[in-house]
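haha ok so turns out i had the wrong file open the whole time. this is the CORRECT one, sorry everyone. sequence first:
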Amino acid sequence: MFEGCFTAIVTPFRGNGLKPELDEDAFTRLVELQNEAGVAGIVAVGTTGESPVLSHEEHRRVVELTVEHARCAVIAGTGSNCTWEALELSRHAGDVGAAATLQVCPYYNKPSQEGLFRHFSTIAECVDIPHILYNIPGRSALEIAPETMARLREEHSNIVGVKEASGNPETWRKIRELCGEDFLILSGNDGDTFALMRDFSAKGVISVASNIIPKRMQRFVELGLRGEFAAMEREHLALRELFDVLFIDTNPIPIKEAMSLAGMPAGGFRLPLCETSEEKRERIREVIRRLGII
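then structure:
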């Protein structure tokens, strides 16, 4: 179920500013585009979905819309730095039919590894669907140590894997060594996908780029799943400029800009996020034009 390209889908708003309205029609169209492309799954209300600025009511609504309209596996981003909040959002995701949750490493309050173990354990014990850890030290200010992942894997059969976004090959090596070959690794960065699949038996990616090139990203990952790494490397090199430019500014600003340039209903931003500079927008335009996206 959790092999392939999983699109970390954007959340469209009707304009920019303090609290533009959630655009449910646009969101439904974006889900349908992913269905048509045949991606393995959709990750709703993750970082790319601007989860930090959604109310709990909006968060639940986006998960419900995704489950209702997606014809693929839905992974709901339900993590938080508050355990009870993550638990309530995870319960809701399970109740409405999400295939799994994505549990970000608690941010800002910086718990110990023991605190992380208890946080994820509480969710796993109370919500009986698969959970995927999300290791992203660049945003959370600490990592889920591979030793903690192994301990969680040993104690909870429904903690099935990790979205790995540390960018650190030594961390990747330790995860695979300590957690075993059956522990799911999904790349958390498009640009790391090739190396993670070739060298560490990752099973795919939770992708930003697949918002705009979903069919191509699914094919890219399928090359790795078939062990066709020479062809996968060629595609990695062809897409590397896109992977890089989508982080020319804070995610999801560049991907929403790119989608809008391509005529897709990505919508605007809620503060504190805002549009990128004209210089960066032109750089995005150049890259997606060279790739034939516009």
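The chain has one domain: 4-227.
again sry for the mixup
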